[in-house]
Design goal:
disordered C terminus; 12 helices; 10 strands; alpha+beta; 4-stranded antiparallel β-sheet; Jelly Rolls; disordered N terminus; 40% helix; Arc Repressor Mutant, subunit A; 6-stranded antiparallel β-sheet
């Protein structure tokens, strides 16, 4: 973990102050080794809006997340055409194909990111039913949601609490199909850019691949490949700035500018220039800190800890 364990939800919150701009604190840390294939990392965000009254920021398209917010109802988020206001105090964020535009008042959240393998083992329902949605956690995991939320609020150490809870759920679950790990690795491989290549590597017909992807990843394989390519480009562009947009997009796999423009509208809901101009200090700070602690600037680009074996294409 970075900077020591988070002792309860208030441990790293900015001290209240009179100011015109919000102050922000965040941290990331790694899960127990046995959870590494299933949990992309733990995260902590805290915002004191000061005299500003409210904040606004942006979340990248991502895999699923479990999140607890304090106080309840402190923030809201819009994903595509859907608004979730307020975000439940104990919430399950399904996998997303849209940037999340968040706003709210002073508060904190702590959460666990789930890889597609983690969704399969720790949640265990069809991911496509939760894609681009935010729902209360309790109907999905039962009374465990309330117990974890109360323990966090009482000051229990978040990483140890999440580790114990998720390891218990992992032990009680059935092993994931091996194709899930292989598909996860292939989606993150920049050299793979067509559904036909995925079918060949997995030795699956396209219909079976679509069922597998939707059930465990939330979206069909074409959308997953497009999102991965777009996120590689977007994170590079966010770091490099306007002057290198065309170069960075091409390095991410875009050889037609119109395709990149189209994907900006699909995944961001707006043109790239408009997105770049928006204030997003928490997102930018998160990119830097997440890269340092968890190895990737965005959860959608999280790599499996051990690459899955691809099907050989040689005789």
């Amino acid at each position: 973990m970075s900077g020591g364990a988070v002792k309860g939800i208030e441990a790293k919150a900015p001290a209240p102050a009179q100011r015109s701009e919000p102050s922000r604190a965040l941290d990331f840390w790694t899960p127990a080794p046995a959870l590494a294939p299933y949990v992309s990392g733990y995260h902590f965000y805290s915002i004191d809006v000061g005299d500003a009254g409210t904040f606004s920021d942006i979340f990248f398209p991502a895999w699923a997340n479990i999140r607890f917010t304090f106080p309840s109802g402190a923030w809201r988020i819009k994903l595509g055409n859907r608004s979730f206001d307020p975000v439940p105090a104990a919430a399950l964020f399904g996998p997303t194909s849209h940037a999340g535009y968040a706003a709210g008042r002073s508060g904190s959240l702590v959460g666990a990111g789930l890889t597609p393998l983690g969704w399969t083992r720790l949640i265990g329902v069809d991911a496509s039913h939760y894609a681009d949605r935010v729902v209360p956690l309790e109907p999905v995991v039962g009374d465990e949601a309330r117990m974890i939320g109360e323990a966090l609020e009482a000051g229990e150490t978040a990483d140890a609490l999440f580790d114990a809870w998720l390891l218990t759920r992992l032990a009680a679950s059935e092993p994931e199909p091996p194709e899930v790990a292989t598909l996860f690795a292939l989606i993150n491989d920049p050299a793979i850019d067509t559904v036909a290549e995925l079918c060949e590597r997995l030795d699956l017909p396209q219909r079976a691949l679509v069922r597998l992807a939707k059930c465990h990843f939330g979206f069909g394989p074409k959308r997953l490949l497009r999102r991965a390519r777009f996120m590689r480009a977007l994170t590079r562009l966010t770091k490099e700035g306007k002057g290198r947009w065309a170069e960075e997009a091409e390095q991410a796999g875009y050889f037609d500018q119109s395709h990149f423009v189209r994907d900006c509208r699909l995944f961001l809901g707006r043109p790239l220039g408009e997105f770049v101009a928006l204030p997003k200090p928490l997102m930018e700070l998160s990119m830097r800190q997440r890269s340092r602690v968890l190895g990737a600037p965005a959860q959608a680009l999280h790599l499996p800890p051990v690459p899955a074996l691809h099907k050989s294409t040689t005789n």
